[in-house]
Structure formats: structure tokens, C-alpha cells
Design a protein that fits this description.
The complex is a heterodimer. Chain A is 76% helix and 1% strand. By secondary structure, chain A is mainly α. Chain A has 2 domains: 200 residues, no CATH class; 223 residues, MetI-like (MetI-like fold, Orthogonal Bundle), CATH 1.10.3720. In chain A, helix 1 crosses helix 3, helix 2 runs antiparallel to helix 6 and helix 9 packs across helix 12. By secondary structure, chain B is mostly helical. Chain B folds into 3 domains: 54 residues; 138 residues, no CATH class; 223 residues, MetI-like (MetI-like fold). In chain B, 65% of the residues lie in helices and 5% in strands. Chain B has 20 helices and 3 strands. A 3-stranded antiparallel β-sheet of chain B has the order 2-1-3. The model of chain B has no long low-confidence stretch (mean pLDDT 86). The chains are: A mainly alpha, B mainly alpha. At the A-B interface, helix 1, helix 7, helix 9, helix 10 and helix 11 of A face helix 2, helix 11, helix 12, helix 13 and helix 14 of B.
């Protein structure tokens, strides 16, 4: 795998080079444009900026902007579209018959790309000339590529080689065309803006409109990210359901992927994973909610200022610790400790626990992680309850704890429920603690000392190690991902609605 | 209950009746629960920190043995012409006997039941490579006797740190109790010593069989390049997005959509961002697997909501009078924001960015999916481009990698790695706090 990576690199390095060159040229044009635009504007009014509509630097910025921005947008678009165009053109060349049993067109295409990248690498390293690379036949190609450190798995068929040659040819023309079009666009933008630089030109307004566009684009990245998440999940999930029946995925009671990578014989039911996830989250909440809630009540209602100023940051320290630390804590400390208590020769002599990784281990540690989360959210919510309600209750003769239990908590209840839901969504989406602490076996069991596994842990194990995304065993991770996304999103939306509604109530 | 009935029973107002006592007891209990909750949380915090420190600190020292190795010319340079190519032909197997002989010499005065061949087991498998590298770098030293400080094997190191005891060695074919007796004497002589382990802090990861050699330095560089990507992308994009939303956005559907998206993204599990990174940057864009640039891009998307939220808060805290004054003297809206509001909000923005970066630095789950685990980070990146594009690990991914390995000697490394990681996080948070204290203005 590492070897392939290296090849991809050398193929990319060439690409990168030309892209970096284009980028440098465009940026250089922009910098030159700034100074020329500014000078021209000043020259037109004889060096007196008062004759200009805008400050001189806006004229410069206008030229620079017109040279750089359209060219860069074009470059990004080109980089996205060119591979798609080439891919579809080349994969059209491969006849149906060439796709052998147990393979797919996407696998073949990755072979094609690998051969093409390998040939590029060979040419750039000077092992062969361009003309030799074009004349290579399918028997020679494997040795030739092995010479430059490109290992090819299967034998290269004539179709693959032809496709690879076509791929290289198209990529080559594409790159030349790209350079011409983009630098051309930059020059045109430069010329137009430079020509428009007159004292009456409203350069500031134009530049500010441009800046506004950039701001809007930056804000839209949030939408693009969500879109990217949803699309990448949906596409791969659809692909998965084409290979594996959806009803099996949602209702099968067993999770048992085969590792042959050929598919077939795998049982990929989400229910055992969901059970493990919910069980662990439940235990985590069982730990975190009482402790977090009582801590919040104490800190906001009882604690003196000095206690509060020490205890609150310390609690928040727990929230700042990365989850990998909690994972390690679960695996190496809490797990063995629990075995000593509940295990075979344990202190209680009950033999409930076989190994250190268990639902209890992960749940307990996750609970610790969630304490500050619950407590700081509840703290905010309790503080939002109007002081008048406290005063009223205390004035009627209720003790402090009666006030908390009978007035403050009922008033804050919706908000606290929201906070608990947010914590639950955190627990369901948590990965590192369960990967290290919960075990790998998927099972439906009631014993909290059994090892179980979760949705997130299985996403990790199905997607690591293997770089082939065509098998149902790998694609199932995307279906798990979308389930996780929907569940956490649903919890978050409900929780936020509750919290917002509650806040409005007292504002 | 009326006053009259109280008086009838003849009770003093100062004596508490049963009901009041019960209520007061309930009050005390309730307060006790609160104190207990705080105490339990603090106990967890202390337990966590104590575990980390007690398990991790040993990783910062390492046991070395000092031996004087005679670099025998007859073995290392058979032709005698000091030709570097000839010297390079001698593999590490050629060096092993030399080192073993040196070690046997060193322990000559000590009584031991070990055969000469077995004595070498106290050394790390990396020892011949160390000597060979030295010889290749200094070919003129061939024929001389040179003092080396060589790594001991991880078992010996574990014995020195109290992790390995004699009983453990009964079934261990790598080391006998006799070795440990030998070590005890050598420690007394001063030829075996524990010193600060710079190789752990600065060095590269090693293969599964050599925990004594593994270091976190290379993955630290991987994390560094990732954070660079995050900083370069997330700060400008996050600030631009916040300025738009806070200062310019009209109240409409589009703005609402962005706001809802940002608050949802802040709560999406980090592993989902890993799936996004895998699908978009590796599957679709064919960026190299395991490369810090992919990790950086993925973490950028994850950190953006955090930065946007904190930046908006600090923009909001700049009072409107500043904007009004700027507008009043003829600045455009854009100029008012960029020349006046933004500089005033900058300390808050930087604080938020540092906290976002700290979060990104400790994040592991997305990195697992884009291939930063399972890659053994043995090479330092050569140059900046290689730092971004060549496969590397990152600190949390490296810790995870060590935690998964079979040899318990790696656990010590994992805990040690956590100390390094937490030190970075602590520093970043301290900088954020200092920035806030020194520069944040209350209006």
C-alpha cells in the first residue's frame, strides 16, 4: 500500500508543479496589477489623490482582484472537472467484456490510473523517453514500471494499457490547455480592469462588492460541508445497498463480516451495533447525569465564589482532555481494575467479566468525559432561571434544597432534558473510547460486563487497513455513518429546539 | 398548626420540631450530594492525571549501556582501502559479533552463568545499526576503539523501571534472570545507566519488535504540519464567515440556512468528518493517503464551526458606538468593519482560534479513517512540500497506534506520548488565557 502511495505522489508531484507554477504566475500578475493600477490612477490625476473617486489603493486592488479571482475560480473548477471528464471518456473505452469476474469498472479504472501514473513517473525519472512510453506493449509494461518502483497487482491487459495511454494523452492536453486558459483569464481580467482605471471609476464600491462575495463564499462553506457529508454518505450508502439488501442491514440480528474481501457470507446487521452503542451511552449517562447535575446545582446554588472559581475550571479541565486519553485510560487502567473486582478471581468473586474491554469500561469512562459537558450546560440553564422565582420560594419559607427541587428544577427541566439529549448525542458519536475500551465483538447481550461493539467502532474497523471501497464490507461503514449522522442530528435538533424554547420563556 | 396549638404543647420556638429537623436533614443531605458530586468528579480528574503521570514519566528516561567497541578493520573493511561502498556492503549482521565481543569484554570481571553469546541479549536489536551508521559516517575510525552508548533491550529497560520483575522472565525466551543479575552489577559499575530519553521526544517510531527505540518526534511534525493547514485555512475562512454573518448578512432564508448548518456541524460526531475526508479528499480528489494535508483539511472543516462561533461572540462584544463613529466620519461599512471592529475583536478571535486548534490537535477519530494510523512514521519529512504531502502520523494517531500494539512496553510510550500531547494542549490554552487577560477589553 505504501508503495502505491509513493507512486501516486510522484505522479501528483508533476501535477502539483504545474498547478503551483500557474498559481504563482496568477498571483504575480495580481501583485504587478496592484502597483500598476495604483500608479495609473495617480498618473491620471497628476499625482493628486483628491481628484480620484476612491483612494488610490482601491484602484490597485481592483486590478489585482480582477486578475486573480476569476483565474483562481477557473483553476479550482478545472481541477475538479478535468478528472471527471477524462475518467468518463477513458472508462467508455473499456469494453464490458474486459471487466472480469469479481472485479468492477472502478477497480479497472484505478489500475488504469496506476499504469498511467507509473508511466509518468518513469518518464519524469528519465528511465524511458516519451516516445518509448507510447510504444510500450502490455508484456513489457510490468517490468518497466517495476523498475521505477511501481508494483502492479494483476497482469496488464491490452485494454488497460490502451486506456492508460489515452488517459495520459488526455491529461497532457488537459494540463496544457489549463495553463493557457487560466493565465489567459488572468491577463484578460488584468487588461480590462487596467483599462477601466479612470478618475471617475468607483473602484472602492467594486472592490467592496468583491470582498463581500468572498465573505459570502466563506460563510457558504458551512453549507458545502454539510452537503459534502450528506452526499458522500448517500452515494456510498446507495452503492452499498446495491450490493447488500437493505432489509438485512436494518433488521438482521447478527454482525459477522467475512474478511475474504470477496463479499458473500457476510452478515452486516446494524442492530447488534446499535444495541452496543445505546447500552454504552446509557451507562455513560447514568454516570454523567447525576454527577454532572448535582455538581451544577452545587456550583450555581450553594458554592461560595471562591469554591466556584476553583472547582469550575477544574471540572472544565476534564472536558479539555482529548478522547484518546480517555480511551487509553479505559483500556489500560479502568478495564484491568474492573476485572480485578468483577472478574474471575476478582475481589467479589463473581466472575462476570472475562476481559478488560467491556460495556461497563467504556460506559464508565465515557461518563467521566461527559460530566463537565452535562454540568456546564445545566449550570447555564439553572442560572437562567429568574432570581425572582428563588426569592419567592425562599420567602415562603422553603429551605434551599426544597427551592431547588420544587421550583428551580421543574422550571429548568426542559433545558436539562435538552442538555441530557446533547450529552446522549455526544455519547453515541464518541469513537476513541469505544474503539479502545468496548471490545470488537458484536453481540446482543444484557450483561454490562460483556465486550460489545458500537457503530462508531465498526466504522473505524471497516474503513481502516483496506483501501478498496468496492466491497460491501467497506461500504457498510458509510451506511453506518449515515445512520449515526441521522441519529445524532435528530437528537441535536430536538435538544436545540427544547433549549431555545426554554430560553425564550424567561427572556 | 397554629400558634395556639404550639403553646398548648408547651414547646419553645427555639427547639426544633421533628418536621423541621427532617427538613433540615434533607437540606444537609442535598448539599452533601452536591459536594459528593464535585468530589467524585475531582477524584476522577486526579485519578486520570495520576495515572497519566505515573505511567508516562518512565517513557522519558531510557536505559543505555556504555561499551567500547573495537571497530575491527579485518571485518569492516576487508580490502583495507576505506572505500565507502565496500564499507556499506557490511550489513548489520557483520557488526553484531563486534558489539557482542565488546560487551563480553565489558562484563569480563563479573561472574555470570551466561554464555558469551547470550550476554548480547541485553542489547536492543537496534545496536548494530547505530554502530554501522557511525562507521559509515566516520570511515576513518575503523581500526580504532570507540565508546558507544547503546540502547538496552526493552526488557532490561523495563526491569530498570520496575515494569519487569524476575518472575515474569520464567517463560521469556528473550531474557533470563541471570541477565538481570548482570545488569545489577553493571549498574553498580556505572556502565548501565538511565538517562533522559531525547530519542523519545524527538525520534521516529520503530517497528513492532523494538519498543525501546520508538519516539514521537516524527508524528509531532505530522501534527505540526496539520495544524499549519488548519491555521492557514480555518482562521481566514472562519473570520470571513463570521464577519459576513455578524455584520452584513440580511435576515433571510439563506442566512438562516447557514446559521443552522454551523450549529449542527458543531455537534456532528468527529468520526463523520473522517468519513467526509475519506470520501472527498481521498476517494474523490485522490489526495495522498495518510498525508498531513488531508488530515489538515479534514480537521479544518471540523474546527470551522468552533472558530465561527467564538469569532462571532467577540465581534458581537465590540460596541455599536465604534461602528457608528466610523460611519459618522465617512467610512464605508466595509471600512468600518475591517479598520475598526476587526482589530478590536482580534484578541477574542485569536483566543477562539487557539482553543479550536487545541481541539483539533487532540482529535483522533477522523485521522483513523484517512489512514494516519498503521503507517509507521520512521522518516522525517524532507522539506516543506514533503511535510504536507508525504505520509506521516500525528501525535494522537501515534498514541493510538502504540496502544494497539501487543508488547506492553509500548503502553509506556503511549502514556508518555499523552504527556507530550497534554503539554502542547496546556501551552496552547495558557496562551489563550494570557491573550484574553492581557488584550480583551470590557466595554
Amino acid at each position: 500500500m505504501i508503495r502505491q502511495v509513493r507512486v501516486a505522489q510522484s505522479g501528483m508531484a508533476g501535477d502539483q508543479m504545474s498547478n503551483a507554477m500557474i498559481l504563482l504566475i496568477v498571483l504575480g500578475l495580481g501583485a504587478v496589477g496592484y502597483f500598476l493600477g495604483r500608479r495609473r490612477a495617480l498618473a491620471k490625476v497628476g499625482g493628486d489623490p483628491r481628484g480620484l473617486h476612491s483612494l488610490p489603493r482601491y484602484y490597485g486592488a481592483n486590478v489585482a482582484m480582477n486578475a486573480v479571482v476569476p483565474a483562481l475560480v477557473l483553476l479550482v473548477g478545472w481541477l475538479i472537472i478535468q478528472p471527471i471528464v477524462i475518467n468518463s471518456a477513458v472508462s467508455g473505452m473499456i469494453p464490458e467484456s474486459a471487466v472480469s469476474e469479481g472485479s468492477s469498472i472502478s477497480l479497472l479504472m484505478s489500475d488504469v490510473r496506476r499504469v498511467a501514473d507509473g508511466l509518468d513517473a518513469a518518464v519524469s525519472q528519465g528511465v524511458m523517453t516519451e516516445a518509448e512510453a507510447l510504444r510500450l506493449d502490455e508484456d513489457a509494461v510490468k517490468e518497466a514500471l517495476a523498475g521505477v518502483g511501481v508494483a502492479l497487482g494483476a497482469d496488464v491487459t491490452a485494454e488497460t494499457l490502451a486506456a492508460a495511454q489515452r488517459y495520459r494523452e488526455m491529461a497532457g492536453t488537459g494540463n496544457v490547455l489549463k495553463a493557457i486558459v487560466i493565465i489567459g483569464a488572468a491577463l484578460i481580467g488584468f487588461a480590462v480592469a487596467f483599462g477601466r482605471t479612470t478618475p471617475d471609476f468607483r473602484a472602492r464600491n467594486v472592490v467592496e462588492r468583491g470582498v463581500m462575495m468572498v465573505l459570502i463564499a466563506a460563510a457558504s462553506i458551512a453549507i458545502l460541508t454539510t452537503l459534502g457529508i450528506v452526499l458522500s454518505l448517500i452515494f456510498n450508502t446507495v452503492e452499498f445497498f446495491r450490493l447488500y439488501p437493505a432489509s438485512q442491514f436494518f433488521f438482521s440480528l447478527s454482525w459477522n463480516p467475512s474478511f475474504s474481501g470477496r463479499g458473500g457470507g457476510s452478515e452486516l446487521g446494524i442492530l447488534p451495533l446499535l444495541w452496543g452503542t445505546l447500552y454504552i451511552s446509557f451507562i455513560a449517562l447514568l454516570v454523567a447525569v447525576p454527577i454532572g447535575l448535582f455538581a451544577a446545582i452545587y456550583l450555581s446554588e450553594y458554592a461560595s465564589k471562591s469554591v466556584r472559581s476553583v472547582a469550575k475550571p477544574l471540572l472544565e479541565l476534564l472536558a479539555g482532555i482529548p478522547t484518546i486519553v480517555y480511551g487509553l485510560f479505559a483500556l489500560l487502567t479502568v478495564g484491568p481494575l474492573l476485572v480485578q473486582v468483577f472478574g474471575d478471581d476478582g475481589a467479589l468473586g463473581v466472575d462476570w467479566m472475562q476481559g478488560g474491554t467491556a460495556v461497563m469500561t467504556a460506559g464508565l469512562v465515557m461518563g467521566i468525559m461527559l460530566i463537565p459537558f452535562v454540568s456546564s450546560l445545566s449550570d447555564d440553564i439553572i442560572n437562567a432561571v429568574p432570581q425572582a422565582m428563588r426569592d419567592g420560594s425562599l420567602g415562603l419559607g422553603a429551605t434551599h434544597s426544597e427551592t431547588v427541587r420544587q421550583v428551580i428544577l421543574p422550571a429548568a427541566l426542559p433545558g436539562i432534558v435538552g442538555a441530557i439529549l446533547l450529552a446522549a448525542s455526544r455519547a453515541i458519536g464518541e469513537t476513541m473510547i469505544v474503539v479502545l475500551g468496548a471490545g470488537a465483538a458484536a453481540r446482543l447481550s444484557m450483561n454490562p460486563f460483556d465486550a460489545m461493539t458500537t457503530v462508531t467502532a465498526k466504522i473505524v474497523s471497516q474503513l481502516t487497513g483496506d483501501s478498496d471501497f468496492a466491497s460491501p464490507e467497506a461500504l457498510v461503514a458509510f451506511a453506518l455513518g449515515i445512520s449515526l449522522f441521522v441519529i445524532t442530528l435528530g437528537l441535536n435538533v430536538i435538544a436545540m429546539m427544547i433549549v431555545r424554547k426554554y430560553r425564550e420563556q424567561y427572556e | 398548626m397554629t400558634d395556639a396549638s404550639l403553646h398548648k404543647k408547651g414547646k419553645s420556638l427555639l427547639a426544633l420540631d421533628a418536621r423541621t429537623k427532617k427538613r433540615n436533614a434533607a437540606e444537609a443531605r442535598f448539599k452533601g450530594y452536591g459536594i459528593a458530586a464535585i468530589a467524585v468528579s475531582l477524584f476522577f480528574l486526579v485519578a486520570l492525571l495520576v495515572t497519566i503521570i505515573s505511567n508516562g514519566v518512565p517513557a522519558f528516561t531510557q536505559t543505555y549501556v556504555n561499551v567500547a567497541v573495537t571497530l575491527d578493520a579485518a571485518k569492516l573493511d576487508k580490502n583495507g582501502n576505506r572505500d565507502i561502498d565496500d564499507i556499506k556492503k557490511v550489513s548489520t549482521f557483520g557488526y553484531k559479533p563486534l558489539i557482542n565481543a565488546a560487551l563480553v569484554d565489558a562484563v569480563a570481571g563479573i561472574e555470570t552463568e551466561l554464555s558469551d553469546k547470550d550476554v548480547g541479549k541485553i542489547l536492543s536489536a537496534s545496536a548494530p545499526a547505530v554502530v554501522r551508521d557511525y562507521v559509515i559516517a566516520n570511515p576513518d575510525q575503523i581500526g580504532e576503539t570507540v565508546a558507544f552508548r547503546l540502547l538496552t533491550s526493552s526488557r532490561v529497560d523495563g526491569y530498570m523501571k520496575g515494569r519487569v520483575v524476575r518472575e515474569d522472565l520464567a517463560r521469556d525466551k528473550n531474557l533470563d534472570a541471570a541477565h538481570l543479575d548482570l545488569i545489577d552489577v553493571m549498574v553498580g559499575q556505572g556502565s548501565v545507566e538511565r538517562v533522559f530519553n531525547w530519542d523519545f521526544v524527538l525520534g521516529a517510531d520503530a517497528s513492532e519488535s523494538r519498543p525501546e527505540q520508538a519516539g514521537i518526534g516524527v508524528s509531532m511534525l505530522g501534527s505540526f504540519f496539520m495544524m499549519l493547514v488548519v491555521l492557514i485555512l480555518a482562521l481566514p475562512i472562519g473570520v470571513a464567515a463570521s464577519i459576513y454573518l455578524e455584520e452584513f448578512a440580511p435576515q433571510n432564508r439563506f442566512t438562516d440556512l447557514i446559521e443552522v448548518n454551523i450549529s449542527n456541524l458543531a455537534a456532528v460526531p468527529s468520526i463523520v468528518f473522517g468519513i467526509l475526508g475519506l470520501a472527498v479528499f481521498i476517494q474523490f480528489a485522490h489526495l495522498p493517503q495518510s498525508a498531513p494535508i488531508v488530515g489538515g483539511l479534514t480537521l479544518t472543516l471540523m474546527t470551522l464551526p468552533t472558530i465561527v462561533i467564538s469569532t462571532r461572540a467577540s465581534l458581537k462584544s465590540v460596541p455599536p458606538s465604534i461602528r457608528d463613529a466610523a460611519l459618522g466620519v465617512g467610512a464605508s461599512k466595509m471600512q468600518a468593519v475591517f479598520h475598526h471592529v476587526l482589530p478590536l475583536a482580534m484578541p477574542g478571535i485569536l483566543t477562539g482560534t487557539i482553543i479550536g486548534l487545541a481541539q483539533a490537535l487532540g482529535e483522533t477519530a477522523p485521522l483513523l479513517l484517512i489512514g494516519m494510523v498503521g503507517y509507521i512514521a520512521t522518516n522525517y519529512p524532507d522539506g516543506v512540500a514533503s511535510g504536507f504531502l508525504d505520509p506521516n502520523s500525528a501525535m494522537p494517531a501515534q498514541i493510538y497506534e502504540w496502544a494497539k500494539r501487543a508488547d506492553p512496553a509500548f503502553y509506556e510510550r503511549a502514556w508518555g506520548g499523552i504527556i507530550v500531547l497534554l503539554l502542547f494542549l496546556l501551552t496552547m490554552n495558557l496562551i489563550a488565557i494570557i491573550l484574553r487577560r492581557r488584550f480583551e477589553r470590557r466595554w
